[in-house]
């Protein structure tokens, strides 16, 4: 079976994507090769997912149909140097925060390149990925990239200049939501609930509310209004959230992540 997908960097996000691609049977394990310098990490990925692994990025690039760059932006130059000569096949997908198509193009001249920003819920097929393509990308290559990210969740195509904003919302967003769930459960424990029950209540409340907004297509403010009985418990809680700057804190978190993504791209 020939290698279809080469992944450079076998870290958190690479694992999230490959785990789901294999579970969805988008690719068989033997169709995936991961270039990763850390031996213990290679062993883990090979044993857990039965994918091929290599310490040699060039080997992974040479045999792959699609090359997914999944290293940290800080090591990109080293990685591009290790891939001197470019990938054997044309389609390169980069998930590096902040890094422009133009910068990837320097390592892969004349290649079709797609910049993507996925997120970790991809692991369970609930990911959100935004993609932007360079001019070399043919419709069938765009379709292939969409098929890869559709297998791990939802996909939206955006102009490249919006990718840093996407990173601030959906790329980094799972961390904010996880903090919210943790804090909601902590509040429950403070009010006397056993931890396991508080965690279950918090988790299902976040899941259920997201599902409610998605299915009804109501504005989040309408959902909030329906929960807040006059003189009731919810408005007492909402008033505290407003006083503590809850919404402002989230807006500023997105802005900070957006700016950090811009900074990571500056080189
Ligand atoms: N985590 C997330 O939620 C998301 C991450 N991203 C992007 O994905 C990329 C990876 O992030 P993440 O998975 O969190 O980071 P990780 O640090 O978990 O993964 C990066 C991997 O690359 C490996 N690596 C380091 N140097 C090289 C090299 N020269 N050649 C090949 N592999 C190398 C690292 O090995 P070692 O540990 O030994 O250094 C590590 O396993 C980043 O660019 C990030 O912006 C995008 C969307 C979401
Ligand atoms: O924190 C980061 O830089 C990466 C990009 C988006 C999510 N994680």
UniProtKB/TrEMBL annotation:
Pfam annotation, one family: F420_oxidored
Main location: cytoplasm
Single GO molecular function: pyrroline-5-carboxylate reductase activity
Keyword Oxidoreductase part of the UniProt annotation: yes
Catalytic reaction(s) noted: L-proline + NAD(+) = (S)-1-pyrroline-5-carboxylate + NADH + 2 H(+); L-proline + NADP(+) = (S)-1-pyrroline-5-carboxylate + NADPH + 2 H(+)
Protein EC: 1.5.1.2
Domain Pyrroline-5-carboxylate reductase dimerisation: 160-264
InterPro entries, A to Z: 6-PGluconate_DH-like_C_sf, NAD(P)-bd_dom_sf, P5C_Rdtase_cat_N, P5CR-like_CS, P5CR_dimer, Pyrroline-COOH_reductase
Domain Pyrroline-5-carboxylate reductase catalytic N-terminal: 5-98
Subcellular location: Cytoplasm
This protein's pathway: Amino-acid biosynthesis; L-proline biosynthesis; L-proline from L-glutamate 5-semialdehyde: step 1/1
Superkingdom of the organism of origin: Bacteria
Family note: Belongs to the pyrroline-5-carboxylate reductase family.
Protein name per its UniProtKB record: Pyrroline-5-carboxylate reductase
Biological source species: Synechocystis salina LEGE 00031
């Amino acid at each position: 079976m020939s290698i279809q997908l080469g992944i450079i960097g076998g870290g958190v996000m690479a694992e999230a994507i490959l785990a789901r691609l294999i579970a969805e049977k988008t690719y068989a394990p033997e169709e995936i090769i991961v270039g990763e310098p850390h031996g213990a990490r290679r062993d883990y990925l090979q044993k857990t997912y039965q994918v091929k692994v290599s310490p040699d990025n060039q080997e992974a690039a040479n045999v792959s149909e699609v090359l997914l760059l999944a290293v940290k932006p800080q090591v990109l130059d080293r990685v591009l140097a290790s891939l001197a000569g470019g990938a054997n096949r044309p389609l390169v997908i980069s998930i590096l925060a902040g890094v422009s198509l133009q910068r990837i193009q320097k390592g892969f001249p004349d290649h079709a390149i797609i910049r993507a920003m996925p997120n970790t819920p991809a692991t369970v097929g609930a990911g959100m990925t935004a993609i932007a393509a360079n001019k070399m990308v043919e419709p069938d290559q765009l379709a292939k990239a969409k098929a890869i990210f559709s297998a791990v969740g939802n996909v939206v195509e955006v102009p490249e200049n919006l990718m840093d904003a996407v990173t601030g919302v959906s790329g980094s967003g799972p961390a904010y939501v996880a903090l919210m769930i943790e804090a909601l459960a902590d509040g429950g424990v403070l009010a006397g609930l056993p931890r396991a029950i508080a965690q279950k209540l918090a988790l299902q409340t976040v899941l259920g509310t997201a599902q409610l907004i998605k299915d009804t297509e109501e504005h989040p403010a309408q959902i909030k209004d329906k929960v807040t009985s006059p003189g009731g418990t919810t408005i007492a809680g909402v008033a505290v959230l407003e006083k503590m700057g809850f919404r402002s804190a989230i807006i500023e978190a997105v802005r900070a992540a957006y700016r950090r993504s811009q900074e990571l791209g500056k080189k």
